[in-house]
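Forwarding these from the shared drive since the link keeps breaking.
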Amino acid sequence: MLAREIMTRPAVAVSPGTPVREATAMLIEHGFAGMPVVNEDEQVVGVFTEADALRADFGAATATVDAVMAKPVEVVSPDTDVAEIARHMLIDRLRCIPVVEEGVLAGVISRRDLLRPLVRHDDAIVAHLHALLDDYSGHRKRWSVDVVGGVVSVGGGFADAAERQTIRALAHTVPGVSQVELH
């Protein structure tokens, strides 16, 4: 698998002159651990991370990303093998790596992007439904959940027909569920 197959694009980036407060707000708003810093030609000149934000002097009204960003920055091409990217991220403890094509930012790869192909869509449905059922039952783990191709099977004891209907309705609120079977 290649970087182009899993990278997030378009990449959200900031410029070196972006105020640290604004860049930090962007990290929080988008749920990123880091993001590329690009110049006016869209060339990657650094990476701004949560750690950079924590090191920044928020009291200084003029604090900019350029003062705290990591530079020089490691970049990869769209044709870089994902296994190589994963090794690089682990060894160097990187949270994100910009993807550059012909010298210009094309996307970004985060740890989450690397994990996404490892998780089947059905696994995400199971996790979401377990969370809903645990909340509903007061975290008593009353039901087992299995999902194959979007078809949900919920097994376990149901107090009555109303509870069966409630569990069926909860399952149908999870994105990707096509059918619900109760056992």
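-- next protein --
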Amino acid sequence: MFLPERRVDPPGIYEKPFKEMYDYIVVGAGSAGSVVATRLSEDYATSVLLLEAGISDLEPDDVTQIPYLWPSLIGSEKDWGYLSVQQKYSHFAYKNERAYIPQGKVLGGSSSINAQVFVRGSRNNYDQWEHEGAVGWGYDDVLPFFKKLENATDTTYRDSTLRGLHGPIVIKEITGSILQSFHQTAAMEIGFPTVDCNSDDPIGRLLVSINGVGGF
């Protein structure tokens, strides 16, 4: 078995076949699997095989390299194209009340087919998991790892104790159209503050983060 050769690769780089044995085999090259494989491979004495069911997104002209074209990836060969179970109280405008759930079938997983939006989830979600028995998965437990992977120095919330400044993923704020100022004014008039979408209480008009440079 050989990896498929691409025109951008140096000649002969894929002539070496897969090894018969590896120290680690990581199944799934999505956001989590890619990071796990990267961290394991930092030990040069360790051999790591990363498997992905989908295709590569490393071609220079690949659509995944152009952020504003991400909607064209929904329903493509790079999307698993899952459907939810039939909903009882919502999705009445959808066929059989089932929601379409795009999930990346490509190197990088769903992080390669979304809009690069960087949202951790609410503190309540993690604390609820811990309350239900997932010890070590509370918000205060996972926060140091979120901070470790991001670099938010070029944002208005860079001084927040909830943000990291030295990680490999550069975070930027989405800059919208002139309508953005009207949205902010309207939110303030009805009592909603402007908050970081990754604050521990993200209720209000959100400052949305994007992965500005690229991931692992």
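Residues 31-41 form the longest helix (11 residues). The chain has two domains: 1-115, 116-216.

- D.
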